[in-house]
């Protein structure tokens, strides 16, 4: 009570006893919750559960649906036997030792009213069977005997031996007794709940029963495209096959939280939103953030993170780069040095004064020349100072020694646009993924030619890669031939063998940007223009991807970067 998150767990007799399936964020705080009886579900829409949330001012229905190709027929496997509405015995019979079970509500019927769904093994008696099919809704109900002295006794004949009402006095419409005219009457155009988990993964699932196959496997059945859900609530299950319930992530309950506005930098003006897809859009270190601006000349704003709040309306001091910005990154060992790749095929190194920019910078510390066409991206070496790598439209990857201001090596072997590149954590290897559908692995101190090549993501819409699992594996984000966004896991020493695992996420136009936390093995994935951040724990053993809670923001991302771990509030168990 008082919260706005609804959690859904699978309960199993073996470990892990509790496995999270999904969670749903509601608009209002919860004052009470109640599950709607199964007779009120919209079975033709494959609704398997409906919860009523009581808020301060409203009663909000939250619906859970299973996607199916056809919603024109009754799906018996989704609706197993459930408890009926007629008692099996009365109080006197129970005290006398009668242990008959309540009748079973059958999920499906054949022509002529013959029940087809099997009865649960827990049932020792099958009486009063009714169907959940809308055309065969039950009408027979039970009315308890009137207690003597509390009201009139002539309201209808009751058989005290069985407690069943007469057919002509106890019959009521099931929809009326449940308080609903029909399940579909609760739907409304307004959104009552927002799903935070749109896919079932290795950590998700529903409890199964002897009379039905697991809903986890049902949710993973093949289908074509997306299936709609009512706007007022529910979750979407992706249509690619989902693994069976298995191990769950230690960080599956991680929660993303937007810090208080006192920590925000606001009134940002004139930001450039046209940086190439290979660029993260901006960059940050533990002291400051660099933001490309839309104005001519490749201007870059540098803001101090130690001075949050509203920026003045007047113009702030900037870096005059002299060419449109293609990519930019901070030196991990020198928080005052900023490397900027321009569309003029040059890399400029800028040094920020102590305390931040007080006036416009016009002259860079150094200019690196060598590429013949526009530069895609630049990356500093993770372990050695004064080493920078860059990729360009000239289909070369060049390594620069900044202390000497010169190129020291040119890596060859690419035949098309280079989407992304990444140093291994130990700095020995460099991996690239390109538009030709190939992943290449270099050891620059040994050769300028790739040491390994393997198949990458299909399609040429974009891709990113990052080293995971201690540098033994590569995680690549990209698209398939149908434009579904997916992530692929490779063993770094066996790229020609192809991916160990492929996980489809959703369909969206922007490339997923992966950010990997080495300490927890959690990868964060989101794209420009997205509102959702996916979280997965990556393991070197099956099932490889363990789903964690995703985070949804109120506005689309224009860019997304991670601060160094030293910026985390460890006393609040903040890890990213």
From TrEMBL:
- Ranges of compositional bias, category Basic and acidic residues: 165-174
Q: Which GO terms describe its cellular component?
A: cytoplasm
- Enumerate the spans annotated as DUF1899 domain: 245-309
Provide the residue span(s) of the region labelled Disordered.
142-211, 441-460
Picking any one GO biological process from the record gives: actin cytoskeleton organization
Task: Give the WD repeat ranges.
Answer: 368-410, 411-452
This entry's Gene Ontology molecular function terms read: actin binding
Q: Low complexity bias: where?
A: 149-164, 175-205
Stated family: Belongs to the WD repeat coronin family.
* Entry protein name: Coronin
Q: Which gene encodes it?
A: Coro7
């Amino acid at each position: 009570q008082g919260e706005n998150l609804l959690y859904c767990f699978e309960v199993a007799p073996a470990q892990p006893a509790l496995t999270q399936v999904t969670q749903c964020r509601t608009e209002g705080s919860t004052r009470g919750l109640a599950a709607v009886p199964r007779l009120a579900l919209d079975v033709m829409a494959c609704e398997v559960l409906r919860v009523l949330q009581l808020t301060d001012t409203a009663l909000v229905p939250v619906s859970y649906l299973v996607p199916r190709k056809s919603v024109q027929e009754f799906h018996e496997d989704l609706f197993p036997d459930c408890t009926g509405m007629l008692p099996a015995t009365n109080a006197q019979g129970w005290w006398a030792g009668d242990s008959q079970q309540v009748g079973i509500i059958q999920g499906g019927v054949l022509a002529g009213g013959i029940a087809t769904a099997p009865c649960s093994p827990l049932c020792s008696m099958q009486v009063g069977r009714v169907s959940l099919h809308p055309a065969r809704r039950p009408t027979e109900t039970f009315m308890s005997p009137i207690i003597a002295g509390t009201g009139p006794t002539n309201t209808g004949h009751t058989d005290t031996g069985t407690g069943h009402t007469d057919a002509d006095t106890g019959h009521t419409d099931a929809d009326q007794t449940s308080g609903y005219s029909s399940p579909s009457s609760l739907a409304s155009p307004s959104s009552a709940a927002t799903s935070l988990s749109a896919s079932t993964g290795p950590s998700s699932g529903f409890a199964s029963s002897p009379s039905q196959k697991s809903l986890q496997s049902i949710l993973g059945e093949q289908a074509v495209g997306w299936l709609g859900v009512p706007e007022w609530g529910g979750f979407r299950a992706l249509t690619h096959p989902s693994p069976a319930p298995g191990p769950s992530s230690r960080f599956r309950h991680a929660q993303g939280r937007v810090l208080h506005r006192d920590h925000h930098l606001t009134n940002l003006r004139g930001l450039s939103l046209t940086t190439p897809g290979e660029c993260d859009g901006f960059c940050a270190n533990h002291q400051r953030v660099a933001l490309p601006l839309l104005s001519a000349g490749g201007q870059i704003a540098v803001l101090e993170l130690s001075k949050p709040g509203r920026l003045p309306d007047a113009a702030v001091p900037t870096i005059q780069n002299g060419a449109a910005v293609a990519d930019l990154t901070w030196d991990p060992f020198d928080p005052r040095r900023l490397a900027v790749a321009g569309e003029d095929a040059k890399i400029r190194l800028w040094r920020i004064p102590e305390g931040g920019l007080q006036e416009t910078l016009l002259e860079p510390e150094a200019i690196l020349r060598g590429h013949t066409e526009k530069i895609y991206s630049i990356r500093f070496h993770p372990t050695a100072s004064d080493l920078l790598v860059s990729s360009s439209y000239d289909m070369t990857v060049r390594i620069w020694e900044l202390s000497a201001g010169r190129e020291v090596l040119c890596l060859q072997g690419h035949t098309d646009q280079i989407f992304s590149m990444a140093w291994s954590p130990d700095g020995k290897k460099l991996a690239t993924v390109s538009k030709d559908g190939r992943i290449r692995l270099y050891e620059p101190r040994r050769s300028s030619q790739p040491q390994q090549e393997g198949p990458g993501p299909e399609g040429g819409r974009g891709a990113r890669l990052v080293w995971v699992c201690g540098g033994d594996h590569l995680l690549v984000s990209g698209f398939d031939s149908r434009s579904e966004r997916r992530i692929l896991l490779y063993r770094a020493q066996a790229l020609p063998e192809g991916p160990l695992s492929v996980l489809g996420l959703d369909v969206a136009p922007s490339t997923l940007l992966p950010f990997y936390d080495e300490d927890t093995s959690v990868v964060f994935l989101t794209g420009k223009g997205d509102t959702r951040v996916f979280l997965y724990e990556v393991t070197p053993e099956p099932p490889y991807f363990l789903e964690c809670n995703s985070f949804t923001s109120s506005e689309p991302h224009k860019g997304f970067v991670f601060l160094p771990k030293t910026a985390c509030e460890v006393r609040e168990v903040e890890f990213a």
